[in-house]
Fold each of these.
Amino acid sequence: MDNTLKFARTKATGVLLLGLLLSSAVMYCQSEAPIPVMTGSVGYFTKVTEGQVQNIPSIDSLLLVPIGDKWLIEAKSDFSHTWGNQQGGGEYGSSSSYGLAYAQVDYIANRYMTVVAGRFIQPFGIYTERLAPNWIRSLQATPLTVPITSGSALGGMLRGGFPLGTTKINFDYAVYFSANNTNHILATDRSTGGRIGFFVPALRLEVGASFEQLLQEDRSHYVGGHLVWQPYSVPLTVRAEVVRSSGFYGNGYWIEGAYRLSQVPQLRRLELVGRAQQFFAARVSPTASSDVLDSVGKDTNQADFGINYYLRSDLRIATSYGRHFSLNDNSNQWVVGLTYRFVMPLGPKGSPR
Amino acid sequence: MKVRTLNSLVLVAFAMIGLAVASAWATTPKKSTPAPAVAAAATSSSGAAQDDTMRLEGEKRFRANCARCHAAPPKFPPRMMGTIVRHMRVRSLITDEEMRLILRYMTE
């Protein structure tokens, strides 16, 4: 074949490909299919704990890529930087933390089940999966039970929600398995567990239970219960969680009430929050290994009060005061800050019908 | 080590939450009556009424679900809304039917 012919062929193929690409791009632009979205939040907090001042700017970003009708890819990373003085007003220092919160593929198999694979948040209780993002949580201080059960999993999960028969109750479930992974920022434990919940839309009441079994180290297990109630008659949200663990992690519970003053015209952007919690350290023999003794917490009571001011649904000023009571360690924490949640389209976003 | 008693501030927090719950309990209507508009639309067979029913159902599902975890979000353009509602379906385990009704309501 002579060179001119070869060139003409390549050119023709090129033009064809370009045409195909362009026409599918045009089709994509005109279709109503969901587009990739970049979302996340930025926050800036100042925390004062017993004379120690910390400034904490943070940014979380989450990329959502829908594919076809049934697939969704989610990837989220966190970054925060802390700078401040040492306890008692000493030297200034700073540190950063970053991490891959999750990177998962979701496949909506049918109306009863979604299959999730990759790195995801363990489905336990309501805090880590739902309330943890700083633009969502009503109080910036995390509950004392959260370190026990929060964590990431690397593996697979089945989850779903559907109405129970003809009753007016929705049932939801999530079961997962996670492999052991020792890579330091991505570390996960070998574990299995799940959560079930019952939601009554007419009362906006949800109750549920969770379970987790560690399949390594001391093979401890955790059980939890949760409740969320949002009556229609008053702008109140009540949330509570209780966690019991075997092994040396301890038990605890928290209950939180958030009241939005939406019925008072001048104060409708204000939200008042209160939370009470108790943590009970596990009883371990004083001769246990130092590793075990170090991880045993202290019995603690804690009360937190907060005022949030919603400038918009995605932008708010958050302030709180918390007091922590445990043996030889009663302390106060003041927090004031700002959270902003963003949602950006990565493609033609369409216009309403 | 044990902190046996509840400290006064923790009790105050409990009392505040208790009070709020009691007020919610006291003001919750004991029997729910269906909104007349829904009932009217449901019995009529015209297309417009059908649309109205769908819209009201969508709004109802939105109210029941979308302010449970975070402040109720605004409407976003339709192709963003599709992604967001799919994400929330997976995250919050709303049902298939709710997802469709909410998506419809949020993209009108």
Amino acid sequence: MTTSTDIYSVVRETLRANSLHNAGTLPPPRLHTIAMQIGQFLLDEQPTSATLMGRMLFQQGIGLKSLLAVVGAVQADYLRHGEQLRAIESYELLKVVIESFVEHQIAHVRSEHDRFRQTVGLLQRSLG
Amino acid sequence: MEFDPSQPNAGRIYDYLLGGSHNFAVDRMAAERLVQMIPTIENGARLNRWFLDIAVNRLADLGFNRYLDLASGLPTQGYIHEIRPDALVLYNDYDQATVAYAREIIGNNPRVIYHQANIAELESILAQAEQHFAGERKLAICMIGVSYFLNDQVLSQTLQRLYEWCAPGSQIAISWIALPENPNPKLQELLARYSAMGSPIYARTVEQIKQFIAPWTLLEPGFQRLSEWNEIDGTWVIDGDRQEGDEQSDMYGTFMIKG
Ligand SMILES: C[S@@+](CC[C@H](N)C(=O)[O-])C[C@H]1O[C@@H](n2cnc3c(N)ncnc32)[C@H](O)[C@@H]1O
């Protein structure tokens, strides 16, 4: 059976291996805290909202590729331990995390583009 | 350089390499050409920016609340005033387009000032610092991603003058590129290309760099690779086809104090 230590180390190693996909705001030394949060989330009987988890991971600077790698590694680990049911349950949960993550990412990119256009507009006006 | 969206700009290219949105198609094209030339450049940009984050948090944990940041580029994607919104920050860059754009990004924030000057004209930067920090000279200073664009004379004068000017207890965080004494042909070509783009990289070995940092006192853990600061396996090697026995190039990060 997968223990909390196993799942934490699977998540931590996957996050570390993918650290270059994360944002410039998330130096790898901070990844162990995030790995613990994800591990806790997966093992909780009544996990905190998956939607909130998706938003939190995006805000902390996790890259989509890192997140997808974590989902793959967690599934592979449960299946390796013969825990099909848990693999399915965690997949359902992580799907909601990914959806929320992507939603926040899209909203962020849109607002950054707007901010860029606005800033360029202001600059061009101020330069006459 | 004027703000000109039809010309690639170093600050916006860097923003693109870090995955940001503050760039035009010309910047993205120029960045992609750089990536073709040096495939590890994106990783290098990330390691540098992560080191800035590590540096600002380490300095803040020590109680620093005044930051003088030399060669800031675009303060996007988690830059100093975002990491520490309560701090007083003086940014600097010599590129007019970068500065004009950066001021618009910062908006009306009295804690943050962006000053345009070449590091070689340090006195004008120090005069701004005197004003912005209201005469308080115990500062956290950052020189991230720029030391290798400064020639020997400017680098040594800058470090010396900063030391004289700031108060005891001030600290400075610097990132470096160390290159072998005898670069292999591929690395020589790379350096020549940078020179041709108007941004020569000054190749120095770790031993040579150590000469520049006196009179500052090097703090623990000393000269450490950015990959180690960032707990990344392996090193950041820009001369990919390094021959057996060639000395390795890499990026380093240091903290120093005025004792
Ligand atoms: C690689 S970026 C580093 C940006 C930022 N410090 C960071 O770590 O993300 C280098 C910046 O240094 C600026 N720069 C280069 N030489 C300079 C000089 N002599 N004086 C002031 N700025 C300089 C460039 O315009 C560019 O914006």
